[in-house]
Fold this sequence. Notes:
tRNA-binding; ligase; zinc; 39% helix; alpha+beta; Ala-tRNA_ligase; nine-stranded antiparallel β-sheet; 6 domains; BirA Bifunctional Protein, domain 2
Amino acid sequence: MLTANEIRDSFVKFFESKGHQIVPSAPMVIKDDPTLMFTNAGMNQFKDIILGNHPAKYKRVTDSQKCLRVSGKHNDLEEVGHDTYHHTMFEMLGNWSFGDYFKKEVIGWAYEYLVTVLKLDPKDLYVTVFEGSPEEGLARDDEAAGYWGQFFPEDHIINGNKHDNFWEMGDTGPCGPCSEIHIDSRSEEEKAAVPGRELVNKDHPQVIEIWNLVFMQYNRKADGSLEPLPAKVIDTGMGFERLVRTLQGKTSNYDTDVFQPIIKVIGDLSGKKYGDDEKVDVAMRVVADHIRTIAFSITDGQLPSNAKAGYVIRRILRRAVRYAYTFLGQKQAFMYKLVPVLIENMGGAYPELKAQQALIEKVMKEEEESFLRTLETGIRLLEKTMNEAKAAGKTEISGVDAFTLYDTFGFPFDLTELILRENGLTADVKGFEAEMQKQKERARNAAAVETGDWVTLKEGETTFVGYDYTEYETSILRYRQVKQKNQTLYQIVLSDTPFYAESGGQVGDTGVLVSEFETIDIIDTKKENNLPIHITKKLPEHLDAPMMACVDTDKRAACAANHSCTHLLDEALRQVLGTHVEQKGSLVTPDSLRFDFSHFQKVTPEQLREVEHLVNAKIRENIPLTEYRNLPIEKARELGAIALFGEKYGDEVRVVQFGSSIEFCGGTHVSATGKIGMVKIISESSVAAGVRRIEAVTGAKVEEIFDTVQDTLSDLKALFNNAPDLKAAISKYIDENAGLKKQVEEFMKEKEASVKNKLIEGAKDINGVKVIKAVLPMPADAVKNIAFQLKGQFTENLFVVIGSVFDNKPLLTVTMSEDQVKAGLNAGQLVREAAKLIQGGGGGQPHFATAGGKNPDGLSAAVDKVIELAGF
């Protein structure tokens, strides 16, 4: 029986034999593509080629791509683990043709690989073809059906609707019919009873799709119409885990050697056995699936967080923790202990896992511990909600309460339902779903973008000239209109551009497009599918006029200084903290820089100062930039260039070198380190477990900081009569102030005792109750002390109301002995009513309450009002 690793290898080797170039998997986390957070299909890394933004280096390509899907046609996060064949992270085996072969070849090879190479029985295979769409003027894909007819009888070729058999990249863009290959893994008796063709695309767990062959031949325009693509594309994707299951004769993906080693360790750690209890089995499958997603995401540079892609990863991790907590009895972090077995099984195909093992385990452990604390908090809050419901005679908690637990505290709804059931209660499911829908609509409205079709003025590809020029003659290739949040913007593609498009942590350039007729502001430059897009608020009136693209050079220079400084920081951090330091993210703006790096403890002030000194020494050396463009990647590695984990590099790369600092980088940089001026680290903090963040400024911004520090010192010296030793002068004043403060406290205690005694002397006996009232010019703390001392001295038959004024702020204080509370008096109610006379409000406990206000003149009347309301 073939192992999973052997099956993966056989696929790419088969297509290599058909003239395909084997390429490595792209990172699962996508950077520099605003339309997508994660790689969710094998074709993602080739989008720029398919869209015509970049020429194909190879006409035929094959790979095994790590993917992440948490929503889609057949897959929702909350379903993963409950069935046997859907996953969050999965591998997709694929082969592509960019304007080379088409349907005939790919169908023939698909059959050859499955039947001739893998020895699958063709009687168990069914294929679907697009049935056509009259409303779009599309006929049935008879061409594909004809090619399949050479291998299969007619009853194994099934018509599929537009939903299943017409693939689209998005609302617009390349699309086309597709053929899915399904396999029937049921027993012979089941096959005899019901033909497999009747179960295709019916969500039967044993009749599943394993391979999809997409024939991209159209482009979908914004108005919904279709136009033929100039170069047809083949894009296939085969579910690796499903293929392994089929070849290993299993009825569940989780029974294969992809997951079983992980599930065995889960059983060892939890003391549970897979196969004994369905709920335990589901939990084990959830954990086994999710551990892969989390580990690969962290490896590829996406840490769990509360925003965008990071939130998705945190949500997946918390789902696994919750299942382990509820069904596997795991009250302590334990998933991080599964990382070694994951690496043992997948580290050969993906060595980046081993390289990042320490970080993966550290981040995962801290995230697990954090969410377990959240679960405990949620359970306490839910218990409070349940008690309130029972006290009110209810058997159901509201959907709003359940949603608050979910949204504010991250408490899963199904866990809420489980705990409620155990306590004889239910939740308002419809109410919860209504709140969820409102949240989704808010998010959808905030992110809604209306994108028009590209209007092409001339054919061509963009040439980036920004490393050498900040001004360059250009022309518009195409443009489109984009509407978002009631704002209309335009995206412009230029033939040649000096504008750097936001990527690699560096913000995009701004500037102007200048023609003899007008000047158009470029407010930002973004990258979409490897295409630099210039964003403007208006279109040029003369679209075909020759133009000069002019970058804002002040902003560019400041960005370049900060970007070059991140490289020097990276090297200095390795020098001071150790070679385990790796960049985990950065942000480069004209005003500052941010650098995230792996390190497992706080960087001390002494270490930060050493790092700063090392970088500033390099700046003073004025080391010139050495730049290597289009350098073969192996040559770059021979140079010792540092690459980022989770970054996709081509066969040729750009390397930036400042002396001993050598890094892969596509950003803009200073011509020599001296142009950075100076660096000043302004903060160091934690981003996530095992990841620290440094924020710093360079050049003129450092001068601004030093000016502020100098001005502050001068002002301080002036306050201390320009003392030559400022530190000694401040220490002396602090000591003197502490002594004076102690004296004041002693004086206040004496005064409080004196005032208390006078109040007792002036007390009135009304119906056997000692009633004390007064208006005093004293601070609130002193009045509170006096009130508590009186209550402590007279434990029965006491009623006190004191009005006080300090800094022109009136305060009403009421206290009483417990017997007066039992008699029906309530200090909180009394002060709330009387506070109206001082234009204020307040409250407190029945035996002690205060109220502040704005009108000191009404204080005496407020004191009398309390006495009146109390009936004395």
